[in-house]
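Bench notes, bay 3.
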Amino acid sequence: MAQYIIDISLPADPNTEFFALIPRQQAHIEKLLEQGVVMGYSLSLDRSKLWIAMNAHDEREAVEMLTAFPLFQYFEPTIYPLMFHNTSLMSLIKVSMN
């Protein structure tokens, strides 16, 4: 399994269809996080860039997974192979106060 960072440029002036797809996009990302396919994602403050850290067997599989994203038609992705993606263990631990 290889790791990739996907650098996505988002539209400067998104239309109403774009905004309507956001809940489906978020649910899809959450499912991929739970499955360990997506390791994390970040959105720039100005909402022009999205970065996704992803596990895939190869770049072709990463592209195939991206095409399943509800907002894919609005993406301008660039895929970079990673040597590694390091994540804080504290962000992975779910604490319950019950």
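Next record in the batch:
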Amino acid sequence: MKGVVFVGDRKLELRDFPDPTPGPRDVVLEIKASGMCGSDLHNYRASPQPGGAVSGGIKRAEGIIAGHEPCGVVVAVGTAVAPSEATIGQRVMDHHYDGCGNCKHCRGGWTQMCLEGTTVYGSGGHGSHANYLQVPVHTLVPLPDALSFVTGAAVACGTGTAYGALKRIGLQGGETIAIFGQGPVGLSATQLAVAMGARVIALDLSPERSRMAKDFGADAVVDARSNNPVEAIRELTHGEGAHKTLDTSGAAEARAATVRAVRSWGTACFVGERGQVTLDVSPDLLRRQVTLVGSWTFSKQGQADCAEFVADHEIDVEKLFTHRWRLDQAEEAYELFDGQTVGKGVILPS
């Protein structure tokens, strides 16, 4: 089979790999859609870490197939996999983490927080930018019949991450939420928040992404380059600020504005990975009784819940995808995606 490998410094290779065969408790998926996630860009841009280095509990290794938004069909099952767990032909997503299976986080479905260390498929273990993917059966999440493979790929990380954050902050219908960054996760958050009955203020630097946010139902769109985001949000909320705010960008300025643009007693949430932020604790947090939350992806059950929410509310998640690519077009795909001005991309291996 073919698989995409990030080799560092914004370069990748399409390499040959043996077709996988399942271990006793594994399955093999034929990948129908593999989403391109903003966090893939960290590994795409940087040099690999030799020897499977561990950073923040996450194993990273050289020569690994990229992609961590898998969706496809079960084509092989291990000898110890029961029919109630997986069957040939089953449509599934994958919760793209594995851990020890025994600690409190693994047992709660939060494998990415494993106390023994986590393997992320597409980083520390082979991922889904390939024809096939071998994973433990316990990582499978059913794909509702109403959802396409492309939608399932989005739910497998970006859209699922947005859903997890909105649930984490307890967004309610009638509230106003300001969402900083309208990349794939931010646009997903806009779609989902609108479906939850919230009023969305969307902020981004890209005109194209801002137009998409408006099309996805944002009540107001703010150009964060030419406006003071905090003042703009207060003007749109009777001077108080938003009930909830969410940063998906990871940019220091956006993170600070995310906290300062929330109203007193409100909740601000960071989703975007990496980077730093400087806050003045008393005026920014303490004296306004602001709650600051970090939200990292979702549990296995949370992924299933997100898929059901999308299906039940008939949310057109495929609108996120502005580009579709074959495996042999991965180099062109990531060159475009690296600019962070377009919508979401997806690789369709078969």
